[in-house]
Amino acid sequence: MVGLYDESMLPEMLPIYYTRLFPQSIFCRWLSCGSSPQPLSNRELSFTLADDVYLRYLSICNQKELQLLLQKKCPHKLDIGAVYNTKPSIGRHDAVVLSRELVFDIDLTDYDEVRTCCQEAKVCEKCWKFMVIACEIIDKTLKEDFGFQSILWVFSGRRGIHCWVSDYEARTLDSPGRGAVADYLCLIMGGDNQNKKVHLGSDNLHTSIRRALAVIDKYFDQLLEDQEFLSSAERLDKMLKMIPDEALRSQVQKTLESMPENSLLRWKMFLSVYESYCRESGNNARKIRYLVEEIKIQFCYPRLDVNVTKGFNHLLKSPFSIHPKTGKVSVVFKPGNAKNMKLDEIPSIYSLLDDSAPDNAQHEANMRVAVKNFQEVVFSLEKAEAMRRRNDANMSLDF
Amino acid sequence: MDLNIRRKSTKVQLSGSLVETYPHDLQMYKIPPTENITLQEFETLALERVTLLRCLATATTLKGLRMYSEEWTEYVIGELKTQGLKYYAKLCEKTSCATTEADLQARRKDHIAHFILRLAYCRTEELRRWFIARELELFKMRFATMRSDAVETFFKINNLCYTNISDDEKSEIMHHLRESTPHSNIDNMKFYKVKFYEVLDLVKMRKVYLSGGYAYIAHKDFISVLSAQYRTQLKQSLAVASHHLGEIEQDERLVSLLKGLHQSYSGDDYSNAKAMIPIESLDSLSVKSFPLCMRQLHEQLRLAHHLKHGGRLQYGLFLKGIGVTLEDSLKFWRDEFTKIMELDKFEKQYAYNVRYNYGKEGSKKNYSPFSCLKIINNTVGPGDCHGCPYKHCDVSILKNRLQGYGFEYQAINEIMDMTKKGHFQIACSKYFDAVHHSDMGLGINHPNQYFEESQKIAKGDIKVEIKKEAKPSVKKEINDFDAMDFEEIM
Ligand code: SF4
């Protein structure tokens, strides 16, 4: 489908898209609410133009200015930055970042060492399940553990998802705070030189890890079949390297290698070998108490780009921006609905603006749903902000 | 801050007021000192505190001890005694609230010295960070050695009152507390509810139960709350101090002293190269003179013709530090990257980064190459191969690699031994000796320092004694601390 269109059509299509389809009004409300108590104009926007020219430190006062700016520059990509103490502009080096949504960026390229269906820029329905799991786990953690409520989930445009937390507490969190939240969520650690990247120790498992495992368990068998984690000798070898105990490793290797190349069967067999090994070796098994959980997590747990979360003023692609390579819209979706999303049903600028395109009707409908999802989050954010302001006012009256 | 410096001291201090000012060994340093002190005392106090903070850093990095472990604290206190800083040893060893004259004087020195160093360390972001990290370690160590009655007094003095959660609330979340709190004996503990951002260090390590934005902490976790407050307060006051530097620096006697303070310890930051290194020699240098972290990046780059961001930064800055010019650097990265991508893409996406490292883009800062500490504490994720191999490699992978390099069996064992114990920089030093067939036992704290030491040997500035001699004993023990007079040693 994408093949019918190409990037060279963007300069013509984008102005129409920005005027007719981009939810400008709700976008401005979201941003200004998320900037308060600072005015909307203190928020940095940044544009990537055709030819990768990069404009930073733009800002707008209201929707009218946004419309003008979009028409004038026709950005191929739209990014959102932090809120400063003054109107951001290139020349100012004394500007201070005051707040910024707490953001998360999950990209399928970080799953390249585990996913087997695609690599690099490619995605398919199979590896999208990794995103489904990531979204569910992170969403729950943010809500249940941290008590955040204004959480916006956005398709990144190609092969990942973004999450924006707009609660006042999240927006004003300092960088050590962001770092701590990111580390709290990060269970997979280590680079290409570490085969085993998850270490849960041998004490009790933290409540948040148990909850994450419960989510993984819902999808694990399906993923095993889709991804065939254990089918070939090479893949099996990867999993074997995660077993630190040599005796167990060679037992597992021997047993699994003699089996048919079916990942699900092999996994079941691994479980039973592991269990009987633990039973026999008693105290020794303490070290590998959570081996099964560790392997599951290494295969399925969300892989965050922690630098994006930790940085206070990292730019991140805006909701409803167009991905210049795929033409897809960065739609807002409901976390509970991630598993029903079909990649080719995500609206693209080409089919939205071409009445005769086969998926035009469906893409238009999905675009409307995305805008509605966006609205819902913004409305509840506005309510929460109004409440916060009222409380603050009451507090100061009390004194 | 209002420090008046006089040449002669007029010290007429009443212990009575000292008791009021310094009721407790541990302070939060909220109020700056106002008394007059001599220039000489000023200087002495400053140097002594730098020594103290330095001990903390050495214990963690060079000795590779786990922070706040018993050995760590022991090492620090022992070191303080050897260095003749008995009063600090005393303040750290058994933090209390006694009021003998010696106690009061020690606290007074502690107080003044802390504020002097604020002036010395507020100058740059890097200095501030170093100072805050060390002062926090000090604070936590002292809190940990405090007896429980002293803890109570400390809370009282600092107006820290919190109420614990009710038994009902506790029993409701009991099983979560069990899962998520590392303490044993939870049943008998009181729990307190604080906002999650008050205990970030516990959140980070997943050592606390979180629900709805609150952290449920036990009494002994309060050190997290306190140190977080202390950190914030320290950060703010350093920022304020840096704005007022001008006023203080009108006294030029102080300027040179304050400026030189950290330099005298940390030495070079390697941001300016001392020699010129042609890129043609990098292949051979990587074998002969690079520490393993850089050799690994070099080899990976040659192999894959690509490095991820973290690797480009770590290796790029190192190369700058050893003396690869900007032009050469650009050529070096271009030659590799264009084996797998179009020139255009390199120029657009990567050349900026190279120039940035040399301070030619962005904020135009002359970035300094990373120290070991920074590299070791860096986050390394999937697809990355930067970091310190002794920390960020699986033991088996590291061992294979060393075998591949053809080291002797025993050398490999020594390196692996240190690695497994978590003594990364000592492992690095062993690697140095294995490469150079030496027995120098260098203390490595910077990859560029490693490189320079290696170059000294290569150029014959240092003669290497062939290995396998009796090892010189590293440390002379001084047993009788009390016999040493504090004043004499200064
Ligand atoms: S100890 Fe320092 S120099 Fe040695 S490998 Fe690690 S980071 Fe590199």
TrEMBL record, chain A:
Can you tell which superkingdom this protein's organism belongs to?
A: Eukaryota
Q: What class of enzyme is it?
A: transferase
Q: Please list the GO terms describing molecular function.
A: DNA-directed RNA polymerase activity; metal ion binding
Q: Which Pfam families does this UniProt record tie to the protein? A: DNA_primase_S
Its EC number(s)? 2.7.7.-
Note the InterPro entries from the entry: DNA_primase_S (IPR002755), DNA_primase_ssu_euk/arc (IPR014052)
* CC per GO annotation: alpha DNA polymerase:primase complex
One BP term from GO: DNA replication, synthesis of primer
Q: Which family does it belong to?
A: Belongs to the eukaryotic-type primase small subunit family.
What name does the UniProt record give this protein?
Answer: DNA primase
The uppermost taxa in this organism's lineage are: Eukaryota, Metazoa, Ecdysozoa, Arthropoda, Hexapoda
TrEMBL record, chain B:
Q: Name one Pfam family in it.
A: DNA_primase_lrg_N
Alphabetical GO biological process terms: DNA replication initiation; DNA replication, synthesis of primer
Keyword line:
4Fe-4S, DNA replication, DNA-binding, Iron, Iron-sulfur, Metal-binding, Primosome
What cofactors does the UniProt entry give for this protein? [4Fe-4S] cluster
Cofactor, free-text remark: Binds 1 [4Fe-4S] cluster.
Spell out the molecular function terms from Gene Ontology: 4 iron, 4 sulfur cluster binding; DNA binding; metal ion binding
Per UniProt, residues of the DNA primase large subunit C-terminal domain are 284-451
Top-level division of the source organism's lineage? Eukaryota
- What job does the chain carry out? DNA primase is the polymerase that synthesizes small RNA primers for the Okazaki fragments made during discontinuous DNA replication.
What protein am I looking at? Answer: DNA primase large subunit
UniProt organism field: Chrysodeixis includens (Soybean looper)
Q: Could you read off the lineage of the organism from its UniProt record? A: Eukaryota, Metazoa, Ecdysozoa, Arthropoda, Hexapoda
